[in-house]
């Protein structure tokens, strides 16, 4: 008898075909969490994505075997999208000297290796394109002795403290470099760098691009009237403050395939409502921005928060950010905007929570009706993004499925390791 182990297609080496991608539901009528979602030409087999996580481990911007092992471990265990950490579009846009980058062609190859592998497993790769702005040139957090503090990476530590730039010459806070106010040339350079990095990401074979406009990094700081005090066409009014972001979105959308999903991560509020500042970037500002996004080709808003101010004030509880995602989703729906998907992120660690955040009503994917079994809770998002729980449990997708009683595909090599029925998982 001759019988060959079927190979994964389009892969430069033999690896067994995964006929059904890991993380796909095998049970009938699974909860929405384990139903596919199609965005443009890309279909995700479930609604659980790995959020971008900096690891401060790159070699002059190049991903290494660490990233390959780290990111692929989530992907082949069934996360339907794994997003590469904040990847800088310019050398001076790295948070730390060891950040990932995509400002030069030699950085394409390690990303392509990862994309090829994930594709061989039937999984999808995203990348978050970023510029750290006034929060650039910092030491990796574990090198800082005092917890919660920051230390500038000096030139001796491969930093660039004299080439840090931002919307205005306002330092983020103690332990951060003093930024210069970006010139018209700096602005053109940043816009071009986002466009060129997006092209490189396409060349590397990524499936999804996310623009990082959250956590006080460059694009986030331009949105806020507290950190953006410019007097040109990029400062002052709401329309002026969002201008740089919109220019970048347009440039990226023009150079990526029309079938490729484009995501945007924002800080939905900078948590400065109680600061006494006359105006800050808040949830209302995000809703106003969100309404403009579908026409620009943004498919999904990834709703994060904070990071733009030292004085931010908020009390995190499990759903603090997920509730904002729900608020934005409802506001869009009420305004008839149904073509911007919403991603919820932040402290999602439990199977039931993940399930109820994305659970749809009977009318289908954009039906926000209340769910009786969830005590009147509304659908809050279309996908969940999860960061720290994947560091603790790379097999979190399998655990969630098991806890919800959903049978899902495991990688063929791991089939003998599936959780046994009745085990206490
Ligand atoms: C180690 C680590 C690195 C992170 N790096 C990034 C990043 O590169 N880009 C980003 O937008 N958010 C980053 N975040 C934030 C996460 O993507 C996520 O929004 C946050 O951790 C909340 O989700 P969680 O409660 O599931 O961890 C990082 C978080 C952690 C823990």
UniProtKB/TrEMBL annotation:
Protein name: NADH:flavin oxidoreductase/NADH oxidase N-terminal domain-containing protein
Region (Disordered): 1-22
Pfam families (alphabetical): Oxidored_FMN
InterPro entries xrefs: Aldolase_TIM, OxRdtase_FMN_N, YqjM-like
Every NADH:flavin oxidoreductase/NADH oxidase N-terminal domain range: 33-362
GO molecular function, one term: NADP binding
Domain of life assignment: Eukaryota
Lineage, broadest ranks: Eukaryota, Fungi, Dikarya, Ascomycota, Pezizomycotina
